[in-house]
Amino acid sequence: MITHETIVISFINYRGSYTMNILSNWFTTYKESSLSGRYIHLEHISPLLTKLSEKWIIERLGYSENNAPIDLITLGNGPKKLLFWSQMHGNESTTTKAIFDLINVLSDRSNEFSQEILTTCTLYIVPMLSPDGAKAYTRLNHNQVDLNRDAQNKTQRESIILSDLIQRVQPDVAFNLHGQRTIFSAGTSSHSATVSFLSPAGDVERAIVPCRKIAMEIIAEMNTVLQEYIPNCVGRYDDGFNINCVGDTLTSLGIPTILFEAGHYPTDYDREKTREFIFYSLITAIKYIANRDTISGEGYKRYFEIPENGKCFYDIIVRDIMLNGRNVDIAIQYVEELSEKSIKFIPKIVKIANLEKFYGHREIIGNKREIRCENVTVEVIEGAKLLNFCLNDELFSTKLRKS
Fold first, then answer.
1. How many C-beta neighbours within 10 Å does residue 146 have?
2. Is the pLDDT of residue 379 over 70?
3. How far apart are alpha carbons 157 and 78 in whole angstroms?
4. pLDDT digit string (tens) for 8-59?
5. Residues 223 and 353 both lie in one domain
6. Ranges for the Peptidase M14 domain (predicted)?
């Protein structure tokens, strides 16, 4: 439950952007406290939907392949139609948390921002498109289908539900909300891509058509705001064309579409800091849309100032060690596994090589010491779990260090 006094809104420039202090205060005030961590599924959001039904229209769109309900939240009655969907991939939950934080802002009718947005826009929100995938904590749905590769064939109930909703709403802007792995960097730099965006291509040539320009301009505005919080940590996702992806299909239909990718912030494996930056981005985007009669797309070129994502990170790099007489580096990546209703991060060796062109979210310097597993029956080889290891006689743990 949220209790707070009305927050006074102020503007800082012609765009109508909010100050950093206001955004951070909003996040603290409106953050949905019942949602935290990575494992978010239907049992977590159902009580929220029940409560929201007292203020907003909650509509049952249908059922998943395993007969779990898929609901739509509709807020506002303005002419600009914004469509959001989250957890199309069930293990990508950060944007779902941020969506409920946003809804809490809009549910405060005494807030000038809420009043403005709800009179200029109608927001259609599907908070969890793949409830089966969310429950199992997997990218795939109950039938082991990637819903973001099913936009054309529409073989799954969830795909049909989304397609029918898009046809019905005919959104002015679509927000396709996802999460990405810890491997991504902003460009080839040593900065993690904490948030990434994409204006999806609508054809093989990846033409910069009008609807893409509109999406690019909105993304550029979000990037401007995020640079105040996470400088050099915003990436631009690869726009390789695949018509089977929902975003690519929507662009091909002329619908401005913005793909969000919630990424890694240092030590933030629960994605609570990233959640905050997604919240700021959502606020910025809908404010930008609401404040303009039209968005021409003339500001699209700023989108290309955002560096394209690289894959330059591992969770841990153990550098400059000796292994079987070789001087090498070892890359360790956490594999996320659902166990006893929580997510366990299992460290596995994914690369043994010279990794001087890569970065670790955590780095251990070996100084040419010999590495061995604490458990002598475990070999230091690619694919092995490496829970604890020794460099000569010094013991190290790969246990996750959370914020």
1. 17
2. yes
3. 30
4. 333 334 344 577 889 999 999 999 999 999 999 999 999 999 999 999 999 9
5. no
6. 58-150
Integer angstrom CA distances of residue 338 from 91, 133, 178, 397: 10, 12, 19, 21
Pairing of β 57-63 and β 69-75:
antiparallel
What the block records as the tokens of 164 is 């029918």
> What confidence tens digit (pLDDT) does each residue in 282-311 have?
999 999 999 999 999 999 999 999 999 999
In a domain, 402, yes or no: no
Q: Is residue 7 one of the residues assigned to a domain?
A: no
pLDDT category, 2, cuts 50, 70, 90? very low
Domain membership of residue 358 (yes or no) is: yes
List the domain range (segments joined by +) for residue 151. 20-310
pLDDT level of residue 118 (50, 70, 90 thresholds): very high
Rounded CA separation 337/276 (Å): 24
**4 Cβ contact list (under 8 Å, min separation 6):** 29, 30, 108
Q: What CATH code is carried by the domain that includes residue 342?
A: 2.30.40.10
This prediction has a pTM of 0.95
Number of domains in the chain: 2
386 alpha carbon, distance to own chain's centre: 28
Q: What is the mean pLDDT of the chain?
A: 94
Residue 327 backbone phi and psi in degrees, to 5: -95, 110
Question: Which residue from 234, 233, 250 is spatially nearest to 242, judged by alpha carbons?
Answer: 250
Chain segment 140-152, per-residue pLDDT in tens: 999 999 999 999 9
> What is the Cα–Cα distance from 30 to 48, expressed in whole angstroms?
14
Are 229 and 325 found together in one domain?
no
